[in-house]
Amino acid sequence: MTKPPRRPPQPLLGHTDAPLRSKPRRRRDPSQPQLTLDPMPARVDLCLALLKSRPPKGAQWAFEVKWDGYRLVVHKEPSGVRILTRGGHDWTHLFPAIAAEARRLPVSTAILDGEAVVLDEQGRPDFGKLQKSLGGRGGNRASRDAIMMAFDLIYFDGHDIRSTELSSRRHLLEELVPAGGEEAIRLSEEIEADGDTLLRIACELGLEGIVAKDRNSPYRSGRSGEWQKIKCVQSDGFAIIGYEKSTASFGGIGRLLLAARKGGEFVYVGEVGTGFNERSAAELRELMDKLIVRKPAADTGRKRNAVFVRPELVAEIQYGGWTHDGKLRHQSYKGLRDPADNEGVYELE
Fold it and tell me: What SS3 state is found at 59?
């Protein structure tokens, strides 16, 4: 039986004189799973820490230092980097070193949550130095000294990870920002210690306090209690609703009249007459005299030589506690919060 003649070998790419064509593209099998990407949120409502008097107990709680600065959220996108405040203001131009470091992070897209701080000679955050580096309250000067202490990761490489538990988010964050770094973005490290012991050490070192976080919790906006802050010295924001005149004090300010919120109203919580210097008093007086009104935002009782103002300025007040009738004890003026920082006025329960 005669075998059929063998076909001559075909060129590797077919006929050399024929145009090259790829095979028709196969349609995706609808049963085949595929990894979807989440749109990056333009802005995130932040998870806030609930103030507590003592650290919580239990193995699920992780502890960090409480950083005294401005809360920031860094958005790294293919188009560039944005740095937003808690109130949603774009402060990218104020933190060039942080923005430059964000561009170098080994990921294409990410949202980091953290705090901008300026450290003193002992490595402690100094809020006054931070404000000074920015040109004072409301300043518009780029800070070369500010760094960001990153403590959470909200979005990572195309995926919104807010529903993931904290321990997993931290694991990814530590891959981006390794512990012990000296760059403009540094990791706020978890500290393996009992909460009471860590609080005592933090207070001895002159830090503001500590933060406790539930390792199993998702990233939830607002004050849900899954993050808790415990302060060495109590310090909160109170609305300035007026001042008492004095010819013997800096700026002619005897005492500031302060208010907290209760529901949708302001409640008078006392006054503060210490903590000013000549510069801060002059700044306060200039700002308050532009906000003068006839009627106070809260009932202050009878006040001699009182000037009332619209409650638009928020003062950071350090205090030792509360009296039985709901007034501040051992209070001292610490500074004005920047409006863009969106630091809330203290809420009375």
Answer: coil
